[in-house]
Every structure is written in structure tokens, then in C-alpha cells.
## 1
Amino acid sequence: MNYRGPHRVRIDHKPEPEILHPQDAIVRVTRTCICGSDLHLYNGSVPDTRVGMTFGHEFTGVVEEIGDGVEKLKVGDHVLVPFNIACGSCVFCQQGLYGNCHESNPQATAVGGIYGYSHTAGGYDGGQAEYVRVPYADVSPTVIPDWMDPDDAVLLTDVVPTGYQGAEMGGIQTGDTVVVFGAGPVGIMAARCAWLFGAGRVIVIDCVDFRLEFARNYAPCEAYDFRSLEDPVVFIKGTTDSLGADVVIDAVGAEAAGSALQTVLGRKLLLQGGSATALHWSINSVKKGGIVSIVGVYGPVGTHVPMGNVVNKGLTIRANQASVKRLLPRLIEHVQSGVLDPKAMITHRVPLEEVSDAYRIFSAKLDDCIKPVLMPPSARS
């Protein structure tokens, strides 16, 4: 896959990746997804997304070659590769903050390295390809258990841990009312995982009918189209005895609909780090003393948010990229026990060669597409 500019991706031939460091591995991709956050790149919303880049931070594959310093993997291992590129030894990795690795993206002051996510995240080529170079191969790549379906495994690279961490950061207590803004794959997973932490009521807000219906069945949860509500904040207050939700999760991020002003400033003119509509709604609809958990992606520049409300309501805001490596052992147990069924979210399996069509379908929300998986040629033979 080759990025050619906003709304333009195509299949192209690039040199196969090579071992550049003793801790590298070369992986032949068997599954790779298009993520909702890839659409921020596709739509031109992320700074320093360069022509010629290969997207894709959700992938599984077979180890084809390893560097001299790799000890935990061997050629032939089928691995799931977390989207975080983490060294495992810096001060932040040692705290379990693998999404903030200081070594994989040393020019940044915030996020660590991410596969296929612009030069603001290190400039690494991603997994929407036949082969990919995997740095720090002894740290995050995890051998897929024999019993696990590869379709489950590929969703453990981002969607499941990000949704799970969104619920985890909410500090959900038994009986809490949890509101999730966004019924994309991460929002749906966050809603489902909210029950694991003891939620008593889960509400999802979005504006796409088929996604809301999927959320009702998969999460399961209450789901509402914000276009049918006079004001989502007023609605949430009204259905929670005028108090507000105990926990609100923003699983939308930079391309939220619902506010003309935010859309113009954040999506059209790119004067701020995206449209912060869902973040506004989150801050204003959570109760006093409540928690707002943010897993939606925003750009690195300033974003207009009601900070006075955060202060005056005594809110706690928790946000980060998911630390996949930290969460994987628990999530693998949940998949094995049947508590989580990631592959049920996959609605489209598309040949890698048709990546342009796949992006168009997913971006335009066509054909009831919830989660598309790209299949490289070798995985289909």
C-alpha cells in the first residue's frame, strides 16, 4: 500500500524490508486491518504524513528472518504485532507505558513509535504490505497460541486492547453508568469491556445506524443517534437523574461530527488538532467528580476544549495510547474463555490488492462496514 496524498492510496511495488539492527525481524504479513485512526491519515488530518508511506498498525505475520540479537523469536513463528513500537528498557517502558516509548520515537515529546502512522510517530512503514520490518522484535511481538483464530489475533494488536484500556482508564465502579461516544470498532469494544469492570448501564452515542445496531447486539448496550437528540449532553443528564454519567469514554477523536464550528476549525481549516465535539460532549455530560477516558486520536497541536468545566466540575481526565504488551496476557485469557469474541467484529475481508476500494468503503461507511481486514496474497493461497 502506498499513500499518494489525501484520499489517495494504491498498491505499489516497494523494496522488501531488510534487517537494519540486530534486534529486527522481518515478518510476512498474514492479516492486516484498516483502523479508524488510519482514516485520519487517509483524510489528510495528521501532520507530516508523507507521500510514499505504507500505513497499517494492526497486523499479524510469520517471522521470515531475524537479526543476530533476537533471542525470543524464531523463523516460522506466527506472531501478533502490537501497534506500539517499544524498546522495553526505557524509563517509560519500564513503567508499562509502551505507547510512550522514549527510544522508538526520540524526536517526539509525547507518543512513541507506531507502525505506519506518519513521521510524527517515527516514520515507520506499516503492515498493509506483504512484508514489514519489526524493530525490538524480542519486546512486543507475541507468538499466537495454537488454539487462537488468526482473525482474533489481529484484533488483539489494537482494537481490543484500546477498547479495553478505554474502559480501564475510566475507573469504572460496580453499577456505574458508562457513556461511550463513538460506535466504531474501538468504541464498540470499549462498551463491551465496560461490563467487565462492573458497569451497571452502558450507553453508546453515534450517528450511523448500522454501527449503532451492531453496538446494541455486540456490546450489548443502549445506543442512540445523536441526530435524533436535541442535545446529547441534555439527554444524558436527563437519563441520569440530572447528575451525568459516572464515566464517559471518548472513542471518536479528531474527526467527530456534530458541531459546525468544530468541523470547520478542526477538519476543514486544520487550525486545531481535530474536531473536539465528542470531547466537549464528554466533559459536559459526565457527572461532577467523574472520569473522562480518551482513546480517540487527536493531533499534536492545540485543541479547543472547555477546560473551565473540567476544573469547576472536579473531573479526572485519563488518556493514552493503549499499552498493548501490558494488556495482552489478560486479553488472551478473555479470548480463550470466550468472554471476548474479537473476530465477530470483522465484517469485510478484502484482498490487499484492493486496498483503495477498502479504504473508500470504510471511510464512506458503505456496505455496513464495521471492521475490514486486508488479506495479502500469501495468506490466501
Note: Residues 324-337 form the longest helix (14 residues).
## 2
Amino acid sequence: MNHLADFNAAISRRQFFRKNGAGLGAASLATLLPGSLSGLSNSSVPKQLQKIAPKAKRVVYLSMLGAPSQLDLFDYKTNLNERFGEDLTEYLKKEGERLTGMTANQSKKPLAPSKFKFTQPGKVSNAWVSELLPHTGKMVDDLCIIKTMHTEAINHEPANQLCYTGSQQNGKPSIGSWLAYGLGSQNKDLPNFVVLHAQHTGPGNVQAISSRLWGAGFLPGKHAGVAFRSKGDPVLYRRDAPGIDRDLRRSMLDSLNTLNQKSYDLVGDPEIQTRMQQYEMSFRMQASVPELTDLSVENEKIREMYGPQANTPGSFASSCILARRMMERGVQFVQIFHRGWDQHGNLPKDIKFQCDDIDQPCWALIQDLKQRGMLDDTLVIWGGEFGRTVYSQGKLSKKNYGRDHHPRAFTMWMAGGGVKGGQVYGETDENGYNITENPVHIRDLHATLLHQLGIDHNHLTFKYQGLDHKLTGVDPAKVIQGLLA
């Protein structure tokens, strides 16, 4: 008598609900997955999501972690230089502004105009662009610059979670995970959601980040983003151990899948299926990733277009090239994190390093997508988690200043994917402090992103702990039609 087998075969009340729940979950998931993955002969977009014609097939999100200063890059105010050093303490009290602990008790809040020159380089767009971003200025007619982004969060970690998961609370799925769950995959050899961590060259503060920003939360684990490393093998254990060839690895994996299937048949845990699928994906990535990440095969003129760091593994430039190669192969959501934008002090010096890292590669990515006919159906998003204050944190001089966190108004830009280029959306007041017209909350950005991919944000839901969760949460969110072509 095999007592262990008898024990496993016995169905307890908990196992009964677990197994049946898994079956219902699989049925629900099948209604959301594309036909090729769910076994249904449906079109590639689930019926409940078929109400919008998609304008974009893929997204690349260029995440500037630490919060770039909109006042030194895009939100130019012509009258600030003559008000240099003006104390804004009473103005802030009047506005009822939330301040961080870093400047709340600062005796004076001296107004700090940007020390950088601005021009309007566009032929169509009237956008002001800083001298720090000369290449971005060249493509301003392709960009939709949003000057009126805002958020509730005032510190980095909750702000990043709100920006990239739709909630300041832990445990929520990231944007890319929602898309992987709702739209399925276009490539069986690569993940649908890939994260790249680009190195930064500046000496500025580097905010710690966690995998929560690309995690699956309560969605099935297979929808989590796969982070590629910036040094060494992009994925750990890409190479088989000495003496293990592909045929032997295949045999080992088949045996492991057989054991996992038996475990799933006994307990019905859907995460067992997730592990099986991830083992299969890892096996295929052992063959696909080396070819994908070999940038030496790229045309030399293409690498030159992305700038001098294009040949440096892990740089922002090489990450942009890699992102384009991934999207060519069917990866639907690529997120590039670039840290070091948290300039509480020494901003004029440190922000130059950051802009040197990203300016030419961002321009090159747009040109590269355009020349390949991919920009029209690729949505490119650039921005941070909030903005920076118009007053200086700490001492102010003509040559040096810093800026604190500012969630009430900051700048992001979008391009491609059905977005209306050559425009500046929204306006801020004379201090660049408050929004005066056309506000865009971070949840509105999420709703608009989903809309461009053919998804009504109210219909992409997942039931967890008795609630129908969605990326945009329970607070009102709307598609910003003024951003769209």
C-alpha cells in the first residue's frame, strides 16, 4: 500500500475548491487570451476588448527614475530670470502645497530659474526645448509633449508604484503584466514583457527599485516582466553546464514536465503550470537570446546613429537598440529604466550627464522605428514618476541649485502609436508650479495607453479577493483624446 499516493488522491474540501477554482480560472483566462493561446478560434483580441480599433501593437516605455526636472528640460518660463532668488515661502503656504521633509522646514524657498538656454526648434510644434537636449529638439515635431502630468505621490517608491502599477500599494500587477495577460504573446521564443536596466554615467543619487515595478502581482506569474541584466549574460543560466547538450537538456525538461503535470493533476495549483511554461520559455530563450543580444550584427551606421555609447553593453544607447530588436521579434512591451535623475543638489552639473546618456539614443530610436515603418504602430513613452520644484533645495547661486520633489505638474512625452505629434498639451502657471489647463493624471495616461492598444481600461479586469481589479483602479480615469491623432 502506498500511503503517500492515497493521501494525495484524497480530496479534501480545500482541494476540491482549489481544483475547481483553477478550472474556472483557466476558463476565464481563455476568454482573455488570444485564440492561439487559449485554444479558441477567436480573433487575436478578446471579444470584451474588441470595442476599440488598436493604433499600436507594441510599447517601449523609457522610464527616467528619480524624476527629471521639467523646468530645466521642457517647461520654460520666460519671466523667472528677473525673479531670481525670490522667496516663495508665502506663495507655497497660500497654495497649500505638500512638501517633503527635505524642504518643509527650510527657512526660505528661493526661486531658481533654469540656468540653461531654451529654443523652439520645431517647424510645427511650438515646444520649448533645453540646450541639454539638442537631439530631442530635432524631433520635436514627432513628439506630443505633455506639460501637465500630475500624481498624488510625493516620494519615489510610492510614486514609481503608482506610475508603473497603477497603485501606491504593494502587490499590484505592472503595466506590462496587464498587457501580457490581456493580449497574450506574439513570440513563443521570447517573453512578452522585457525590462532593461540601463547604466547611467552621472554621479547623482541612484534610487533603489524593486521587481514590484515589473512584477505580475496577483496575476499568474508567467505575466511578470523578465529583467535582462546589463552586464554579462543578459539572462542567468543561459548557457548549459559543461557536458549538457541540447538533446540531454530537452530530455531532462520533458521528464521534469511529466512530474510537474502529475503534481498539477493532484493539487490543481495553477502556479505549477506557470513553472512548466517558464521552463519551456527558458529553454527556447537559450537559443533566441544570443542572436537577439548580439548587437555586432547591427549596421555600423545604425550604431553610429545611436551615439558613442551604442557599443557599450548595458548603456542606454545599446538598450534602445536592443529594445527595437525585441519589438521586431514580437515583444509587445519593453521598459528601459534609467536611474540617477534625483537631483536635490548640484543639478546643473549632474543633469548634463543624464541628458548625455539619453538624448541621442531617444532621437535615434524614433528615427530607427520610423525608417523601418514601425513608428506608426509603436507607442514610445518618456518620463519620470513626478517633477521638480521651482524653488531651490538648500542654497541657491547663479551656477548651482537643487530641486525637491514636485507631483503637481511635470512633463512627459509620447510619440508614434496613433499619438498626435508636433503638439504641446496643457499649460502650467507662471511659476511652472500648478496646472492651468488640460491636466493629465498618471491613471489617464494608463487609460490612454491601453486605448491605443485596443483595450478599454474598464474592461481589462482580474478578480482577486472578491474584487474586479484593473490597472486604472477605482478612481476616475479617462482617455485623453487631445493627445491622439
Note: Residues 1-45 have pLDDT under 50 and may be disordered.
## 3
Amino acid sequence: MRVASNRGISKILFLYVTREALFSFFVCFLFFFFIFFVNQILYIAQQLMAKRVPISQVMQLVIYSLPIVISMSAPFAALTGVLMTVGRLSSDNEILVMLSSGLPYRTVFVPAILFGIVISVLSFLTNDILLPLGMVQYNKLYRQIAFSTPELELESNSVKRFKDTTIILGNVTKKDIQDIIVLDRTGDGERRMIMAKNAHLNDGGRQGLSLDMDQAFILSSKENVRRNYDYASAGKVRYWVPQEDIIQSVLSISVSEMSSRDVLKDIRKRAGDVGTRLNDQYIQILPQMMQFEEILRNGPQNATWNQRASQLNTLQNNIRSADTIKNNRSLRTHRAELYKKFSIPSAALCFIFLAVPLGLLAKKSGQTVGFFFGLIIAVLYWSMLFVGQTMVQRIGTDPLLAIWFSNVSILLSGLILCAVRIRR
């Protein structure tokens, strides 16, 4: 027998470890897939089943949303599957037999890492290619449903925005609405607000939705002359929302449902717009700063000295406006979603570096212990990712740091445990 340091990886053992990992991955994938799948079914069913949408169309929507379920399940299944595999090999002393035979730790590490790379790539492709394609079909079908069931878009205690109309809803019971407010813009460019205690929803077919309001109050005002307004009250008012406005509102695709390439294009466009607005703001601030400096240099004897407080206040407001433009929330959100498209799939590989040394610690019941450790780590990872995304939106944390922090933490923890295990 040759020395372990000069020995290559046994093909038989490589296939054996890989086969064990694949089986455990498949079992764990079904577990996580079931969790995310049920959540997706409940989400869609809550929206559609109550509106009596045919079950066949509901199931089609569920199928079109499967890519996001798959892309989310795969990394966590890779983590738990490798933990269960290595845990079983360790608790059954098969790892000990390999090491006693002069085989190195890479006999286990190499197939596990290659397995993690494959899962990461497949998860990324599913999220970046299949998900956008699925959402295109999802929106096409949803558009057909919206044609036949336009009231689908109206929910209790919600705000619905259409093309030129915003509807604020109270309680919605079937087609009866309590406490409704409609904000829109008339053909003459006037802003209009319609309030009613009760309203009834009618399906106007291709014409759209009609809202029959009782005891309505109407207020309209000019765009540029706010004090010039008219008001009226009516016992009955019928308000129409055109069908094309309804369809347009349901066809919008969120940034999380785009491909990474489309998100990157959108980010560049938004960054260009922010840069232009920021440059215009700086052009406005510069002469104000020079003017304020001149006031201070001239001193109290100058007539403009008494204007320094108002000049300073204006300058500070414009600087704050520049900071608001610079820290554009929408741009931060888009960048966070772009990083998520890479961080979540790559988490499968990061998990491997943590799963292998943790699995080696198992002394008995390795599969059971590995499964529960996998669930705990999955919850911790998802919590860190959620907190990071919340920090991006709420306090303006750098998206790169917030989104990748969980991956880096998992990877560093795994590398430290790997180093400690190998030294032993």
C-alpha cells in the first residue's frame, strides 16, 4: 500500500460517497420542496380559489411558479444531504476505516465539493433562466384570468394602483366594499378624490370594472392651483376602471423574477438616472455654497448679512436632497436582488465546507443528527439573509455586505472547522 499523501482518490470510493450524497440530497430536496411548494400553493390558492377560478388554471399557475421553489430548495437540500451523508459515514466508522487505510480527508471532501459546485450551478440556472420564463407564462395566464375575473385584483384593506387610478379599499366581502377612496386624474388634468361609505363591484367585461358607490363625496382641484377646487356629493356614483388599466397592473414583473442580465440592465439605467439627478442637484448647490461663503466673507457690515440664516437653511435642505438622491432606495433594492441571485445558489457550495467537518463530528445516529443540524443552519442562514435585506431597505446598509454576509460567515466557519479537523 502506498503512502496516503501520494495516493489519489479512489474511483470506487468517489462514486460511493457521491451516490450516498445524491440519495440524501434527493430525500432532503423532497422535504424542502414540499415546504416551499405548499407555501406557494397556499399563497396562490388564497388569491384565486376564493374567486372561483378553475382548479386547472390554478394548477397551471403553480407549475409556472415551480422554478423559484426548486432554486430555493436545492441549496438547503445540498447542506442537509451532505450533513446526513458524512454523519452516517462517520457514525458507522466508515470514515475511520478510510483514514486507517491511509486515505486522506480529500476522499470525502472532493466529491462533496464537486457536488456543491454542481448544485450551485444548477440552482443558478434555474433561478436565472427558468424562473423568468416561468413568470412570463405565469403572467400570460394571470392576464387571461383577470379578463374573466377582474375583481380578483381587489382585496380587503389594500391599496390597488392602476394606470391613472389608485383605489384604497376597506373591507371587501365578495363584491361589496366598505369605506372606499378613489384617487385619479381627470382628462382635464385635475386631481380628483371620490369617497364613499359603500360600493358594489360589477364586472363590465371588456369595458373593465364598475364601482357603484353610495353616498359619495367628490373633491377635485387644479394641478397647479390647489386652492381652486370644487366639491359635490351624490347619492349614487358609478366609477369605471378600464380593462387595459387592470391588465397593465397585473403584468408587472418584480425584480426578483427577472434574470440577472435584465436586473443589471435595470440597475445601470437607474444608476444613470440617479447620476443625472445628483449632478443637477450639485449644480444647484454649488452657487448657493459660493453665495453663502461670500455672505460670511463680507461680514455684518454687508446688507446681505441678515440673509445668512435663510441661505444656510436652503443650502442644508438641498444637501439633504442630494443625499436622498444618492441613497436611492429603489437602486439599493435592485442591487440587493442582483446579489441574491448569486449568493443563494452559491450558498450550496459554502454549505459544503461547513457540512463536511460537522458531519465528521457525529458519533452515532449520524443521519438524524445531520438532518436536524441542517435544519438549524438553514433557518440561521435564512434569518441572516432576511435581516440583511431588511437592513438594506430600512437603514441603507451596503447591499453587497448585507447580502453576502451570511455566505461569508458560513464559509469562514466551515474553513475554520476544516482546518481544526485536518490538524487532528
Note: Strands lie at 159-161, 165-168, 172-173, 176-185, 191-203, 208-221, 229-242.
